[in-house]
Specification:
heterodimer; A: 143 residues; mainly beta; 4-stranded mixed β-sheet; B: 369 residues; alpha/beta; 10-stranded mixed β-sheet; two-stranded antiparallel sheet; 12 strands
């Protein structure tokens, strides 16, 4: 009975975490780092383009889990983080910080969900390898 | 009577929805009561004499250090019921690096698959000691730096403390594979140079920075000049907010206090005192409590009389159900459900209300502050 309750509340909080992420907020404290414990690399890549024209956008700031990258001239980004090898929901923010250069776009908060991830290229020791997923984004033009 | 601050706090609808969801999240976490962070006050000895010290530690502490074996015995009691890989153990003090056996304790924890770390003033952290700690599995480290040279030395009561702490910061910034941050207890003097300090940290390659305000505890209780005024406190919050927007350093406010419309803006998560819900501490005399900042308030047991696992499983009721905190200044507060009496370490048992209210500091009128 106790285990069922724990599973229920645990699942309930995972759901709340996912909704909070979609609202642009986080519920977790500073995450685990990997030094000296099992770890894995979680990578998200994709293209950022304009909602209507599908024109790719350069210079969009992408932040995930305390790391930051910018989209290149093809609108592409690749961002990664290291964490405990298990299920994760990482909040990702796409933000236009160069004002009207390349257009003016609304900020988008979304998330990358890793469920039962299959890791590759681990070292048979603490490091269990990496997993990658594609997340293409369309931003609304505010001009 | 309606809470007077409520009219001055304007939280957007989306954030209000998120805060209400987070209230439910907190309640669920209290029910789950999963231990994933253990703090060990491994010594009360210290090599500094800080004006703001929260632990009242001494350079020659009367309380002897806890023998490593006693601490590990307590850890072994709780080990079967937790997941060590996701439970961080942090050594605090006093100054942990005054102990010569940290590496042995760390290695024992590493062999049990615990990630472990420490909080230090940096006085004794040189290349050789860091290498030895890393070899023992050190995963995370926090260095206190309370300003640039003049102000850090003033607060720390030692003319050489900035030199050594800044050396430690530079050393850690160029060390691969360790998670490291710098913390500052902001006071009136350091607030004046906070932008300069930020630029200095960025120039050294520091990626993470946490700002705390000094709360009236330990030696700081007798020095009101260390505490920020309401205006200065807000200034600090606005500084954190704008620095986060710049994105050059991952800066955040410390763990305490419900911050009204600054929630979600100055740290990565909403306010949640996890003491006794996810965090347990073992003090130097064996006392088991929520977090080391709580000190001798709310003791839940003692490792010399109790089984640590039993204490975690069956006590900590006051921290898991905080309805008893709806009293004093909290009784009529419109935001009580998001805060529940502030951090446990700030609870004033004599007055039966928090010794420090962040909302009050941010939104009270100057007379009220």
């Amino acid at each position: 009975m106790k285990q069922i309750k724990k599973k229920f509340f645990s699942g309930y909080n995972t759901l709340i975490g996912a909704i909070l992420t979609l609202l642009g907020f986080s519920q977790s404290c500073d995450p685990m780092a990997e030094y000296g414990v099992p770890s894995a690399r979680f990578i998200v890549n994709g293209t950022v383009s304009e909602d209507n024209t599908e024109q790719v956008i350069e210079g969009i700031r992408v932040t995930m889990h305390y790391d930051t990258v910018f989209t290149d001239e093809n609108g592409e980004y690749r961002i990664a983080t290291t964490d405990w090898p298990g299920d994760h929901i990482f909040a990702i923010r796409f933000e236009d910080i160069d004002s009207v250069q390349n257009g003016l776009f609304s900020t988008l908060d979304t998330s990358a969900v890793f469920t039962n991830p299959e890791f590759e290229n681990g070292d048979d020791s603490w490091y269990q390898g990496q997993v990658e997923q594609e997340l293409n984004i369309k931003l609304k033009n505010r001009e | 009577m309606r809470d007077p601050y409520a009219r001055r706090v304007h939280i957007p609808l989306k954030k209000r929805i998120a805060l209400n969801l987070h209230d439910r999240y907190r309640k669920n976490e209290a029910r789950l009561h999963r231990l994933n962070y253990i703090m060990w006050e491994c010594t009360r000895r210290c090599n500094l004499n800080c004006r703001h010290c929260g632990s009242d530690c001494q350079q020659d502490a009367a309380t002897p250090d806890m023998p490593a074996g006693d601490f590990l015995k307590a850890i072994d009691q709780v080990l079967p019921s937790i997941q060590p890989e996701t439970t961080t153990i942090v050594f605090t003090g006093g100054e942990p690096l005054l102990r010569n056996d940290l590496e042995q304790v760390g290695l024992e924890l590493y062999n049990r698959r615990f990630p472990w770390g420490l909080v230090t003033n940096g006085m004794l952290l040189d290349e050789k000691r860091l290498e030895s700690l890393l070899k023992a599995g050190l995963r995370t480290i926090t260095v206190s730096l309370d300003g640039l040279q003049k102000n850090h030395n003033w607060l720390r009561g030692h003319g050489n403390s900035f030199k050594t702490a800044s050396h430690a910061v530079k050393l850690l910034a160029r060390t691969e594979g360790i998670k490291f941050d710098v913390v500052i207890c902001v006071n009136r003097r350091s607030l004046e140079e906070i932008q300069e300090l930020r630029d200095w940290l960025i120039a050294q390659g520091v990626k993470k920075w946490r700002l705390f305000s000094i709360f009236p505890s330990g030696r700081a209780a007798d020095d009101p000049n260390l505490s920020l005024s309401g205006k200065e406190f807000r200034e600090m919050m606005e500084f954190i907010q704008s620095t986060r927007k710049e994105g050059l350093i991952d800066v955040k406010y410390g763990c305490e206090g419900f911050l009204g419309d600054f929630e979600g803006e100055v740290r990565d998560h909403f306010f949640f005192c996890r003491a006794g819900i996810n965090i347990a501490s073992i003090m130097v005399d064996g006392t088991i409590t929520g977090c080391t900042s709580i000190q001798d308030k709310f003791p839940q047991g003692n490792i010399y009389q109790d089984n640590f696992a039993d204490v975690w499983e069956n006590r900590f009721e006051k921290m898991r159900d905080r309805s008893w905190t709806k009293t004093g200044i909290c009784a009529e507060c419109d935001f009580y459900r998001h805060c529940e009496g502030n951090g446990t370490h700030l609870w004033d048992e004599k007055e039966n209300e928090p010794a420090f209210c962040h909302l009050h500091k941010l939104y009270g009128s100057e007379e009220e502050k």
